[in-house]
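Internal tracking record. Fields below are filled automatically when a chain is submitted to the structure queue. Please do not edit lines marked as system-generated. If the sequence contains nonstandard residues, flag them in the REMARKS field before resubmitting.
Queue: standard
Priority: normal
Entity type: single polypeptide chain
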Amino acid sequence: MSDAYYKYKNTSWLAFPVKAVRGVTYRLKSLAFTKTRSDQEDFLLAFEAVQAPFVPAVEGVFDEYQNKLQDVADENASVKLIYGNYESWYARWKIVSEARSTLDLQYFIVENDAFGLGLLGLCLKKAREGLQIRIMVDMRGSNKMSIKLMAKGYLEELAKFPNVQVKIYNPIQTSLISVFADIRKIVSSNHDKILIADGTNAIIGGRNIADEYLVDPIDDKEAWRDTDVLIISREVSTQLQKAFEEEFEQLKAVEVNQSIFGANRVKQLDIGWQTMELALYLRGPLPITEKNKGQSSLIKQLNEQLGKYKHMTGYRSFEPSDKSHRSPVHILDSNSLNGPRNDITENIVRYIDGSRREVVIQNPYIVLTPRAEAALKRAAKRGIPILVHTNSPQTSDSFPTEAMLYRDWRSILRDIPTMRIFAMVNRGQLHGKNFAFDSQIGIVGTYNFDFLSEKVNSEVVAVVKSPDFAQELRGEIVSDMRGSSVEYHLANADSKEFGPGDVENPQKMWLIKLIAKMGWLKPLF
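SYSTEM-GENERATED OUTPUT FOLLOWS
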């Protein structure tokens, strides 16, 4: 399929008949690939039901996958759970600042605020030092950086260095030929959030590079609740690099070239990392001088933003190894719609089937796919308690996914009677994507519990086999459930039902109810 696409792409429109034929050839091969994947998913749904009684306990599920890794398996990785937003930013800034040879960054969203400009500016500094750097952002998530008219030259400036590769995932022009074969291809995204430094230090999780993910609620009550893991391990980083490269080398990843038309934004990137560095070291705002006065507007903007973060004071004392666990860790990866790998869904289903005591799920978007729903129903039949923590219509940024939960929540609780659903209220959005099984296995990453993550987008997660880590993760999730959350429940003799439609101060409930009537749209969410 890749050969067919490149033949189409590299054919000039001046040779229109040839380009048209090659476009049709690519479309037919794409249709065949999509049908094969659909047939495989139908087979897996049936196969998982048959194999479920024979799935080992969750520790055994972990060991089976770990044994396949051989030379890149690590039984003693350092892994640190990071729920605090500022702490997650300190971790990123520290490992990038201290990198000496290589940097790989892959993010769905890089915003052009103090955090996005700060990180890209720091990458510019590292490029000058000679590090080998690879960066990829998603066109949809990072449109202010990835669309040429909006990019302001930031990515192009980095691409000027011979030691830097910059790519954009799935720009519109590569998707249009595919949309007629499968509409999902135009929304297919690189949803990974990967940072690897020197092939040893890595961070993955739910956070993108933007203020809502990285500012603590104490300084911004609308800040989001999210999760990352910091992993120090050459073997695990090697696994992550494989996940990185499978998307970076895809035909949907388009290289950014230096542009003679884009404005030179080197000074803005320099100001980005300088203002952030001063703020982290508590040295005050960046002064406007004769040398930088041409960028005074940006300096004032960034100083003003960073000046609001009164509690971003812990960088100098941050140590990556503090409160870390030593345990076996491995990476599970799923390719986007154009690739064959879907290790995450397969293993999540096996962990649910292997659970003997409890399944705990924290996820911003709950749209149960047939495979996920079937696995949870099997767990309920075994009497396994299932705790789910998600967003409510008050906190979610995704009206379509809230609409599907609004549509299905009653049937979910009826058909999966051991499940309890808790929804976030009265704080910023929940964005963490976490699983804990039997207080033995903890999973943190980018994987939403919906159709897009299972079938369309690229995703990556870390799986940790450690009672201490799993219990720490479970404790954070349960604390969120007991804090700013409400429980959805069916009517009973003692109380009337309470569901998404009963949450106070919902956002655009009329739109949620409207979309809920369009059940045929469910596979797109």
